[in-house]
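Box 3.1. Reading complex inputs
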Amino acid sequence: MLKEKLLELREQAFEHISSADGLKALQEVHVRFLGKKGPITEVLKGMGKLSAEERPVIGQLANDVRKMIATKIEEKRTYLENKLLETKLESEKVDVTLPGRKSETGNHHLLGSIIREVEDLFIGLGFSIEEGPEVEQDYYNFEALNLPKDHPARDMQDSFYITDDLLMRTHTSPVQAHTLEKHKGVGPVKVICPGKVYRRDNDDATHSHQFMQIEGLYVDHNVRLSDLKGILTVFAKHMFGADREIRLRPSFFPFTEPSVEMDISCFRCGGHGCSVCKGTGWIEILGAGMVHPNVLRMSGFDPSEYTGFAFGMGPERIAMLKYGIEDIRNFYTDDIRFLKQFNRA
Amino acid sequence: MLVSYKWLKEYVDLSGVTPEQLADKITNAGIEVEHINYPGEGLKGIVIGEVLTCEPHPDSDHLHVCQVNLGSETVQIVCGAPNVAAGQKVPVATNGARIAGNVKIRRSKFRGVESNGMLCALSELGVDKALAPYEDGIYVFDDEVPVGEDALPYLNLDDAILDLDILVNSAHCMNMIGVAYEVSAILDRPVQIKEPVVEETDQETAEKVRITVDAEDKVPYYSARMMTGIKILPSPRWMQLRLIAAGVRPISNVVDISNYVMLEYGQPLHTFDYDKFGSNHVSVRFAGDNEELTTLDGKKRALNAHDLLITNGHKGVALAGVMGGQNTEVSASTESVLLEAAVFDPMTIRKTAARLSLRSDASSRYEKGIDRNRVARAADRAAELLTKFAHARVLKGIVEKGKRTVPEHKITMPWQKINQVLGSDLTCEQITGTLKRLNFSVTGEGEIMHVSVPARRFDVTIPEDLVEEVGRIFGYNHILATLPEGTSSHAALTPYQKMRRRVELLMESIGLSQVYTYSLTTKENASSYAVETRDTAPTQVIWPMSEEHGALRQSIVPQLLNVVQYHLNRQMPNVKFYEIGKVFLPVSGDPRPAEEEHLAGIITGKRTERNWEGESTDVDFFSAKGMVETLFDALAVSDQIDYQPSKREGMHPGQTADILFNGRVIGYVGALHPKVQANHGLNETYVFEIAIESLLRHGEPAIDYHILPRFPSTTRDIALVVKRTVAASDLNRVIKENGSPLLKSVRLFDVYEGDHVADDEKSMAFSLVYFDPERTLTDDEVNAIHEKIVSACAEQFGAELRG
Ligand SMILES: [Zn+2]
């Protein structure tokens, strides 16, 4: 009797579980069949009337039925929960091809990038970065660089003077003179001097009254022209490609003796001749030389003990050559469409 | 300097060296050959013809019909030149020839008369009209030339002209002999220069001329030669053609010879018409302050006491080394010539030439320097040529003041120094050999060498100059590349440089693009938008190129306005820029401005673009302020920063804050004044400028490590109703002061004005975090602090808790 009842209860519960269509209905099934006042509890209460043999059998059966129902309910619960999650996930679907929320970033200026690249290269070679004033004394801008007041290479017309003795520096070389002075005659001095310089020019495609310059200076015992050639080779390969070659041509600057111009083999044509190198296979990149003994002497270094080399380059020129930029004014017009093109430079 | 390849061949054997190869070698040795000009380029079929007969054209009053012998045939040519005549030998463009401008000559008819070619003027053969000799019409050969042959070699139109860029250190190549010495050294071939031979009469020059020099230090040497019996004629054709090649227009024999010798020897010469000289006394002195001289170009020149003047003892006759005077000019009737060969101080000549804007071939040579030991020889050369080509009788001797020659300059040095500086491995023989190629004399004494440098190389004075001479002639391409062997050194960015790079990166990561603008601006703009306004006038340049770049900026902002305006004009209204650069602050009593590095930024337009999620939003004051706050956070100085409302010229009076660092104003952030926006045609625009140097000079922020919290913090919100005039920063400060030390952070999360709040009041809600690193705080402890804060705000601002 009780056995049949239990089995029937089990069937009833299974049916309810199967037809429960939500977690709430399932919970009701749980309460109804497995609750403290549920039918299985009722069955167990009536066990007193059973014989001693039947009691454990029915007791065992009642527990089994209870477990089976509980298991079934758990299975169904998992099923319903999963189904619910699926529905939720389905409802949260988005068009992953819609644009995301970007944060807009700005651009680094091409000249800044070139200066930074040169700085980093030379820091790696043991050169520090020195900066100096843009309004300079005539002495540091000219005289200390072996350009006495009446030197023919010096033309007042080419400089923005503020007073007879003050001007907008025309090159970053005065920083070299300051740096040498600071070292009080004791080497080594190994510096790179980047910065703005000014010349009394009308702005056009190839002239700018303001432009950038990077100068390098290395003074020590036994610094040789061959060392200059070595350092400039490293520079040329770094900036213009590993297969670049350099050549030095004699030139003239008042602050170096000997003075040279450095050409690199053309990066466009590899030296065969093209429009970039005007058919020569070589491109003029910078001026350099061995520091003139007068410059060393004036800044407190003994030229019989120390030698040195110096070089100077124009970041605008490097950028114009490297990217085929046609007009130097682009660097100072700051058109965002120009700047953006060099974000990776 | 224009160098004729054919002329140069007279001094140095150039066989086997093409003009192109020569140009390369000269360039590689240090004097840049800018280009090579081939004057005969494109000419074809030009032969020497002989005009056999020359009859007037039957139907024309200016054309002539000529029978011209071309060697192999005789042809009829109609010619319109006024100077054509029978017996002339002339260049003929034959049938099918090409003349200048790629014009082809064809058989044609002139008023019914057949013409088989053209008799040519030099300009028709490509010679610059400004250089062509004096006569009108066709070119007529003056010497024995073979009829029927190619005319170009006889016109030097088969030449190549090398254009040398002469820098300060290569003045020794401003003449053919100097170039010859240079090329001789480069090619290692001997140089041949004929010494001039002068035939003198018995009459003494000294009878006709005496010289006094007042400023002997500025006139180290002055000499005069005298010639009589001169006949003014055209100079010989060969000389004319060489002058043309050098870019000098032939005038007459006397003028041409003095120009020719200058080109050949580098020595400027001057010829006076002795009969007009007015005395026999050449007196060289400085001009008086009110003195005047009319120069050869017909211009009256006002002189001053810095101009060297040649006088006849009374009045000026020439501006020394620059230009002769009109009063003693050689003319067609000149019979006697006083020839000046002198040395003048380069600086004096330079100053006079520059002041009068009167740069001549003579002055440019004096300015750069001349061969001190070639002066008298140049005068002799001129005398020789004048005898030959102007019938001159040269009087006996030279009248001179000063030393005719100077000793050669001696340099003594260890020969190994050259290897030490170049990093080369040359032998003593290679080094002395290279110097000898330059015609320097060298004697050795063990480790030491003594070098004697000819006066023509006045640029070589110190051992380093010899290093250069050896290096450039030997060739820098033979020097290996090495890496320095000296002290190894370590290098890094300075803390300031490192921080500046970080600021750049930060600005770019929050959307601002870097720009570089000009430091020079208009006088009016120079002081506007300065962080710190000064009474002193802006620093100005003495001779600006234009008003636009006349004064030094004290702020970057005006330049950024221009950049934004540029973009607006090109339909780019949404832009954000920053610049880090120097500003120049005038210092009272000191012409030198103080230089400070500033950071400035500018933003305008959309903060977010309209997109699929919603409408666009515009940038505003808080966009700009957020940028500077982000910066101060990154630099770990936010605790030392305060903002104060401020009124600044050109800025919105209600939307501008001064930025204070430890109580000192270091910048500002705010909206442009609507009037400024209207004037510039700008949209709503926000700017900031910060004297960043003062922040960054503190170096990198020290990092103060704290152990991670082991106890929970307690967060309480508080909403206070205050008068609208109460500044958020003031409330913030009072909350912080009263919450210390357990109150760790205060964040304003809501500002409300409107319903349920009185018209003149606002509600501000803050989120407060309390924390003790040693223990968990109890509610009672937190409540006590919280109440203290509330009552302090009530006391100081009349704040009430919002219900
Ligand atoms: Zn190329």
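In summary: The two ends of chain A are 91 Å apart (CA to CA).
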